[in-house]
Write a structure and sequence with these properties.
5 strands; elongated; single chain; 2 domains; 15 helices; about 40% helix
Amino acid sequence: MELAKALGLLDVHVKHGNGRETPKLLADGVPDDAFKPIEGDERKYAAAIVKRNRAQRSGQDEPTFDQGRHGEAARGGHAAPPCPRPAPRPAHHPAASLLGPEQDVPTGKFDRSGKEIKVPGVRSRLHAKGWDRNWLMGWRDICRAGDERTMFSAVAPAHGFGHPFPLALPSIPSLAPFPAAIWSSMACDFAVRQKIGGTHLTYGYVEQLTVPTPDQLAPHKDAVLPRFLELTYRANDMASFARDLGDTGAPFRWDEDRRAVIRAELGALFFHLYGINHDDAAYILDTFNVTRDNDIKAHGEYRTSTSGPADPHPPCLTHALLQLRNTGRTGRLTPVSTSS
């Protein structure tokens, strides 16, 4: 590994010398202080990684790398935009190690039966919870007044996450898009804002959220799941998630207008399932000040909410809600195929 690249991979944990002196220090290997635990880190992981770092520094162990994958193919034969990802980093890097390495970490100790004692890695810890998928679902713990939303949920590749991203492991993985899509809706986000009393969206709050019941959601499965998949599956590292939903194709292209259409359709559906009419939906959307300001800067109008012309492109959320209720489909979206 080149020294110049190594400098970019360290956080700010190396506390020796200044920028000019650091290359000299790193020439002999990463200092142990780079892995000194800070608040929130698990000391047993830190100790195991320090030991491994010393072995690597002395040439007894070779560092491994997490290469990650980019979404290269796209639907329709066009290349998908590369998904921004951090540069490959050593497995002993602080940000990777203290959140939990992928595999179990040897400690060099043995129990009475002679079995080697290892610190459980991400895979072992997930397996102990009955989770064997290559993806995870969760939400951001931090809530800030300057963000567009209060709740940010996501489906991501199964790697180590810290406490700012609490995890939700659904008992039926194939139905994971339902809670993730609901949590991403403006109807749910408005409800979250009324409940939360600080800046941390903890498990206690999420467990109390008002969401549609499984019986209410069941009729919409064929409409919600493919749309959520198209919004989520745009890189190869999410292929396992797509396969669990029955999709065998390549990642979807990033099309801003199409994504706006899908978000408006799903947003309108969840407003409908929450029992919120057009006028109340318009009021709720007007309380998303940051979203409105960003829309005006980018498009000259509040595109997420403003009805605009009779056939807006892409349609806004309130227009989609009106269409949903006026088409005679009793509030149901048209099902789409995952291969479309």
